[in-house]
UniProtKB/TrEMBL annotation, chain A:
One of its GO terms (molecular function) is hydrolase activity. Residues 42-313 form the GSCFA domain. It comes from the Bacteria. InterPro entries: GSCFA. This is GSCFA domain-containing protein. It comes from Rubellimicrobium aerolatum. Its EC number is 3.1.-.-.
Length: 360, 275
């Protein structure tokens, strides 16, 4: 009998042995993954809703979830958390697209200043168009929003310089841009503040090449200010809430969007030794779990699914270090608060994309 | 006659009501440290030969006090619908938070304020964040107590605004209470007055909003007690960092007496009385 390349392959290369033949909880689709973190490694996060889970689990597992914009220490943690300090490593809110991330980095480095003016709500309060839901109750004035934005961008600069590992979850390819200067909005103007104006705002659905180009720009800036930085890319498994592609079905639009992001992530990983891909998308969406990692709405990810992702992430990235990490003791809660917190964790993370579906 | 069975032995008898004036509306004020200004004003009146029909009761703290909060609730239940029950509580929350300059300086911008008003080098805390902090603190602390009093008392309940902050940082540093001395106000310094005033406003507006929800009237500090920038005028300073004196307490007593002379102490009446 002649040999062939498949004979020498490890078990994980075979579907029957490593996917169909295992209990769902035992499936481990992690391929080559060279990233290593210790309890001292400063891990920063950004991205779509799913990145919030990674941040939460890192914090809960005793690893150094690096927050560059933590809010003033005079405020109790519960207040800071409810105002989105610590949701991500800086108070940028959800960063859904590679274009948004690139522009966030450029703005932090002083290379881009979008022309979009502040959004004024009917009650006179003010939103930052580039993080319109980050401040509950909004800002009291344009001046306050601009000062807070300056502080925020300084924190982003600090984060880029000081982080050891940057975990970015690619979420969407669809987005809305300013016709004037191409500024990318996290949400379509008019959904959560602002006013949609077809003469000023335009829809755009990114291609693989565009995502790769945007991310290459981000990586170049990051490594320029922080040569030791490592990057971990994931693709959010959360489907689109809605698609704006004319005539498109949301399911097909989701497949397109996630496919583009997955291919872009692979190209970036293949191009740079400091970029690592972690297959959280595959763990959540893989047929092996028979859909059980999605909640009833078929969008939100269950705590069981997030647990599977984070168990594998920590196992692969923190070899020999998990035991050394000491999870912070849980805050004392009374029984009612504990129950409410448990319910909240199943798993309705703050995801302002939900606003797209409001009232429909 | 010890008509308050829970009455504590105390040298200060100013809380004793005038039991001879049973046909007039009685006024009772309960509170914690800020009630001292009112008690002193009542003592001044008593020493001057008057027999006030107002009682001021200090809730029991670690060292001093006339009655516990549970006793205050029981006392409130004994009021008649024609009486007045006033409350002045926990007014120093904003001071415990920020009388002493925080090592990481902060400031906040009020609606309509100019960015140039911010303390140089201070970290901005968004107004909505600080407002939420004060609102949630008021909700978790004051509201439960106020609700209990409101539900127990047949008499209308009036919440008294605490005195505004003192502008004079040197006075504060020189006269700071033990709590602030122990927390090293001498070295850390005093938070700039405009910031303390903003925090006081947030505290009081959160309290006023909660009172409104509970059907409790909110009585602002007496007219003429604040300077043109909104701070407590020096002639109303008690010899410490945070409290007002008997002269201020006397003006509060006059506010309440003005209210008691009107047939119904509803919100409109209160507002009318203080004009």
């Amino acid at each position: 009998m002649s040999g062939h390349p498949y004979r020498a392959l490890p078990a994980k290369a075979f579907w029957r042995r490593e996917v169909a033949g295992l209990a769902p909880a035992d499936v481990d689709p992690v391929g080559r993954f060279d990233l290593r973190i210790t309890p001292e490694t400063r891990v920063a996060t950004a991205g779509s809703c799913f990145a919030q889970h990674i941040a939460r689990h890192l914090k809960g597992s005793g690893f150094h979830y690096y927050v560059a914009e933590a809010g003033h220490p005079i405020l109790p943690e519960r207040i800071r958390e409810s105002h989105n300090y610590g949701t991500f490593s800086a108070r940028y809110g959800n960063v859904y697209t590679a274009r948004q991330l690139r522009q966030l980095v450029d703005r932090a480095m002083g290379r881009f200043a979008p022309s979009e003016p502040a959004w004024i709500d009917p009650d006179g309060t003010v939103r930052d168009p580039f993080r319109p839901t980050v401040q509950p109750g909004n800002f009291v004035s344009v001046a306050e929003m601009e000062i807070d934005r300056r502080q925020h961008l300084a924190a982003v600069r600090r984060m880029l310089t000081d982080l050891d590992v940057f975990v970015f979850t690619l979420g969407l390819t669809e987005g809305w841009l300013s016709r004037e200067d191409g500024a990318a909005f996290p949400l379509c103007p008019g959904v959560e503040g602002g006013t949609f104006d077809p003469a000023r705002h335009v829809f755009h659905n990114q291609t693989v090449a565009e995502v790769v180009e945007d991310m290459e720009a981000v990586l170049a800036t990051l490594r320029a200010v922080n040569p030791r930085a490592q990057v971990c890319l994931t693709v959010s498994p959360v489907p689109l809430m809605a698609t704006a592609v004319p005539g498109q079905h949301v399911l097909s639009a989701t497949t397109y969007s996630k496919s583009v992001l997955r291919v872009a992530a692979q190209e970036l990983t293949d191009s740079h030794a400091f970029v690592h891909y972690f297959p959280s998308y595959e763990i959540i969406t893989g047929a092996f779990n028979r859909g059980r990692y999605f909640a009833e709405d078929l969008r939100n990810v269950t705590e069981e699914g997030v647990g599977h992702v984070m168990r594998l992430f920590l196992a692969h990235a923190t070899v020999g270090e998990v035991a050394r990490a000491r999870p912070a003791p849980p805050a004392r809660e009374d029984a009612a608060e504990h129950l409410l917190a448990q319910a909240a964790r199943f798993v309705e993370v703050e995801c302002d994309e939900v606003a797209l579906d409001r009232g429909s | 006659m010890n008509w308050l069975p829970w009455r504590r032995e105390t040298k200060d008898e100013s809380f004793l009501p005038d039991t001879t004036s049973v046909t007039t509306r009685s006024i009772t004020i309960i509170g914690d440290s800020h009630i001292q200004a009112i008690k002193k004003a009542l003592l001044d009146r008593t020493n001057a030969g008057a027999k006030p029909r107002i009682s001021a009761l200090r809730l029991t703290g670690k060292k001093q006090g006339d009655l516990t909060f549970d006793e205050a609730v029981a006392f409130a239940a004994q009021r008649g619908p024609e009486d007045i029950l006033a409350v002045i509580r926990r007014g120093n929350f904003y001071n415990t938070l920020a009388l002493i300059q925080h090592p990481q300086a902060f400031d906040l911008l009020e609606p309509g304020a100019d960015a140039a008003d911010l303390q140089e080098g201070a970290e901005l805390v968004p107004h909505a964040v600080m407002k939420d902090f004060f609102t949630s603190t008021i909700q978790s602390g004051y509201v439960k107590m106020h609700r209990r009093l409101r539900e127990a008392s047949p008499a209308p309940v009036i919440c008294l605004e605490v005195p505004p902050p003192k502008e004079d940082a040197e006075h504060i540093r020189r006269s700071a209470e033990t709590f602030f001395v122990q927390n090293n106000i001498a070295e850390a310094g005093v938070t700039p007055a405009p910031i303390r005033l903003k925090l006081w406003k947030l505290q009081q507006s959160a309290l006023a909003a909660s009172c409104h929800e509970l059907g409790i009237d909110y009585l602002p500090s007496p007219a003429g007690t604040r300077n043109e920038r909104g701070f407590l005028r020096p002639e109303f300073y008690a010899p410490d960092a945070t409290h007002a004196n008997a002269a201020y307490g006397e003006l509060v007593l006059r506010q309440l007496e003005a209210i008691s002379r009107t047939p119904n102490a509803g919100l409109a009446t209160v507002q009318e009385a203080i004009r």
